[in-house]
Every structure is written in C-alpha cells, then in structure tokens.
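sorry for the late reply, my laptop died twice this morning and i had to redo everyting from scratch. anyway the thing you sent over, i finally got around to it. pasting the sequence first so we're on the same page, its 169 residues, then the predicted structure underneath. double check i copied it right bc i was rushing
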Amino acid sequence: MGHAASAGSPNLLMPETLMVVLTWVTFFILLFILQKFAWKPILEGLKKREDYIRKSLEEADKIKEQLAQVEVQKVQILEQAKTQANSIIEQSRKTGHELERQIEQKAKKSAEEIVNSASQEIQGERQRVLQELKKQSVQTAVTLAEKILKENLDTQKNRNLINQAIKDV
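ok and here's the structure:
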C-alpha cells in the first residue's frame, strides 16, 4: 500500500513530461503575448519618454546658451549705457563751463561798456562844466571890464589889458 500510494501520487522531483511540455508551451505563449502586446508598447513608451527627455535636455542646454548670450548682451548694453551716461555728463559739464565762460564774458563786456559809457558821460559833463565855467568867467571878466572901462574909459592901456584877458579866457 505504501508503494501503491506512492505510485499514484505525483513525484515532485520527477515531474511528468506532459506537465513540463504544457508549462513550456504556456510560458512561450505567454512570452509571445507579452512581447506582442505588452513589451512593444512598454518599450515604445520608454523610447518616446527617452526621446522626450533627451529633447528636453537639449532644449534646456539651448536655453542655457541663450540665457548666457542674453546675459552677455545685458552686460554689453549696461556698459554702453554707462559709457553714454558718462559721455552725456561730460558733455553737460563742458556745456555748463562754456555757458559759464560766455556769461562771464558778457558780464565783463557789459561792465566795460557801462564803465566806458560812464567815463564818456563824465568827460562830456566835465567838458560842459568847463565850457560853462569859461562862459561865466568870460561874463564875469566882461562885467568887470565894463565897470573898469566906465571908470577908465580914456585909458588905452586898460582896454588892451581887458582884450588880452578876454582872449586868454
């Protein structure tokens, strides 16, 4: 019985050939089905994902390069702006100094004109005062001469002296 029981029960160490063949057939059918319907789409999905990641990395590299170029351009533009600003400031300073010099020259010229005008007015007034003084002196001399002549009309010498005094004035 022990032997019969062992003959009827399958031996795990010695599998049956039919079971082995069916297991292998099932394995290969499952392998074929998985390859056709699962692995190809999975591999295609992974390939697409890999391509997407590769393209994303390439685009990121391109963007980094563009960003570096933009940074270089930004620095150049800032340097140009700084240079232009310094140029404008320097030009403004030059213009300010030039305007200052022009205003100073105009002020000096105006002051000189005022001084010259005042000198001319003073000279003119001096001449007028001298003329007025001469007139008054002559009138005074004539008046005195008249009085003297009335007193000494006969004297020729007095007349000559008065005439000489009038000519000198």
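Helices lie at 2-8, 17-151, 156-168.
thats about all i looked at so far, will dig more tmrw
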